[in-house]
Amino acid sequence: MTLIASSRVGSELLGHFQNGEAELPAFTHVGLLAPADREVLRAGHIVNEEDRVAVFLKDERFMGGRAHVVFYKADWPLFATACVAVHELQHAIDRNAPWYLHIANMRKTALKKFADAESKGSLTSADLNLNELAYGLGYMNTFFTEYLAYSRSSELFKELGGRNTAAKSQVSLFRKSGKNEKSIVEFDPLNDPQDRSEFMDRYFWPGNRIRFKAGAAAVLTNKKLIGELKAAELSTAIAELAAFYDSPDPVYQPVYSLK
């Protein structure tokens, strides 16, 4: 935390917590969790644990309800860990942001309407669309908060590395061996066009395109929400979302079988 606070971008981030905008999370390692807490963490995240670096979680069933950043790696140097930490701390801030709460409330409304329709015993196509919309709105919050979080960690990487090249060189340990590719803390999809396609591939896949586009349509047609997103400096992300929505759906080749 001292290292994060020593930077301009880190100090600005921590100021949100000092102003009471969100609860400052505690830090822990997955190996230190009690079995019950480990199970809550596992149930909430489908991605294989071996692929995880860190995760932000606030759940009444987890660690007494206190917000936590849980690390999955135990051998990262301090410099890299700080970059990962600000990524997760950005998620903690975003959970109380007007745009995040707006999308979350839209999702709750869609889920309630779908549940009410389902309880009646028959579902129309419009009811099924509500279910798709609810999933899609969940993707929208992921889309925007990850945009901000990756940019935050990248900014810290550049700032700290600019004044300590020895520390910056340590991150090369986490690049793919034999290649000079970016580490996970160097990606900045908000400001670097070359990082956006990999960002999309990491969090979204073609099978979710219908749901993703349903959520995108709801966001892009909501003027108040667009204003909240722009206030959070997400104009670039909005433009990327609009471009994705307007792009033609991929044409899938039919699957043939022998008869």
Produce a short descriptive summary.
With 259 residues, the protein is mainly alpha-helical. It has helices at 2-5, 8-18, 35-43, 78-94, 98-119, 125-163, 165-170, 193-203, 209-220, 223-231, 235-246; strands spanning 26-29, 54-57, 68-71.
Word description of this protein:
The chain is mainly alpha-helical. 59% of the residues lie in helices and 5% in strands. The protein contains eleven helices and three strands. The protein has helices at 2-5, 8-18, 35-43, 78-94, 98-119, 125-163, 165-170, 193-203, 209-220, 223-231, 235-246; strands at 26-29, 54-57, 68-71. The protein starts with a helix and ends in a 13-residue tail after the last helix.
Fraction of residues in helices?
Answer: 55-70%
General form: globular
Structural class: mainly alpha
Q: How many beta-strand elements?
A: 3
Characterize the main sheet: 3 strands, mixed
Instruction: Supply Rg.
Output: 20 Å
The run of helices and strands is HHEHEEHHHHHHHH
Per DSSP, what share of the residues sits in E-state strands of 2 or more residues? under 5%
Low-confidence stretches: none
Strand order within the widest beta sheet: 1-3-2
Distance between the termini: 64 Å
Mean of pLDDT: 88
Number of helices, where a helix is a run of at least 4 consecutive DSSP H or I residues = 11
